Amino acid sequence: MRFLPVNLTTLLVELAGLDETLALFASLTASPLDGIEEMVPAARTLMIRFQPDRISAKAIAAEVAARDLSALPPSVETIVEIPVDYHGEDLAEVAELTGLSVAEVIRRHTESEFTVAFCGFAPGFGYLVGGDPALHVPRRKSPRTRIPAGAVALAGAFSGVYPQESPGGWQLIGVTPVKMWDLSRDPPALFQPGYRVRFTDLAKDGKTAAAPPKTARTDASAQAPTGPSSAFHVLASPIPAVFQDLGRFGQTGQGVSASGALDQAALKTANRIVGNPPGLPCLEITLGGFSFEATSRAVIALTGAPCPITVRDASGRILDMASYRPLALALEPGDVVTLGNPAMGMRSYLAVRGGFDVKPVLGSASTDMLAVVGPAPVTSGATLAIHESATGLTSVSLTESPAFDLPAAGDVVTLDVVLGPRADWFTETGLATLTGQLWQVTPQSSRVGIRLAGDQPIERIDSVELPSEGTATGAIQVPHSGQPVLFLADHPLTGGYPVIGAVAEYHLDLAGQIPIGAKIRFRPIAPFAEIKPATAEEKKP
Prior knowledge:
This protein is 12% helix and 27% strand. The chain is α+β, with helices and mostly antiparallel strands and 541 residues long. The longest helix is centred in the N-terminal third of the chain and has 13 residues, at 18-30.
């Protein structure tokens, strides 16, 4: 058992295998430790996020090391049957890799009983174990950029079903019409940890498979009654804006990560300016250009990336306004607000006094662009309803200021990094490359992550495949190319490439504001070292 740092509030417990991982997860679920907030089980690791003011990483390590992991968690009696049309693109290749005929591959897959070990990668994606060992095949050497929803696939010792269209590297053997993720269902994920799963052959049953349904999503037009009296009508949104709050927590068991505003300080500040509670949903606007018309009086604020703001009233008069100031009673019915493009930063946050009337999905109004969970992105023509109740509001604040200086394209931004959990998968030269050269932010960056390019790739010790394990916001994942990806809030819950380090939490808001064309310098705050369990003396208060 090893204890590896992820960031300042998260650690990774590496175990002997899946059985120990599930046993530890069951133990900590049945007898939780005070201060642990969330756990993400994977193939042979358990990622633990904790509150450092209530428990330390060393104390967690000591408690976990003392747990009895000899007993497997009790099995769940729920059985789910999944009908499959076995005509997957990789079925013939799987047969060749296993030395079996196609018919024998199908027979062994349908005669196996699987168990949902854990969920990750995408909402509703269950990692299934317990299949025929003869069907263990490696991932594809080159991942596909598009895999259809409902695809049934194999990778290593796992089987799984892709719940939505996404990229992926598993071997595709068929497709099912069954919806794996459905927000109208409780819980939305069909697969839950511990469920038993059996696959059936549609052809053998004499049926044909229907086209797999797309993942459900709450539509923005359904967020409020038609024709709200207080609303903004969106006139322009060059890059679709998204609703964000402080995040969606407690859903990792279904494979759903937190998401949330990329600059949480800016979101809280925008709400404070207009007198809202700090965590109310705001509109996250990327690179400005957003425009809307007000239908009633409103108090708004804009924080984050400083966009020029103009207000055109009904008479055609144009007023220039400033970020980080409330537009108190400045908006009258018919006023049109237009945001220019920011010279610094990436993302601005629009708050309105009373808050936007947007329906939460799984406890949060955040839109997760990778997982396709939450309100739909806001585009031109949308109507954004506003709460008319004054409950919980305070006076507007005129004293707010940015939490940090925002970077511009061409700037060098230094981010503090916690090395680990897989820093020991890289050579000394690779570690020196991470910290010793500047990394260019590329146009392929998004809310999922910042794709970086450097003159020298990060060198690994070898090309051994990493079993999927939990990933945190701020993780620096290194694919085979050696060009890293810095995960932001919409990152996948689990990943199969080693993470060399993670941005310290206090620099995550800054990371979310780094524009394309800027450069990043990673600065380790300490050498990589495993976490040692606290001694009896260290446990004393």
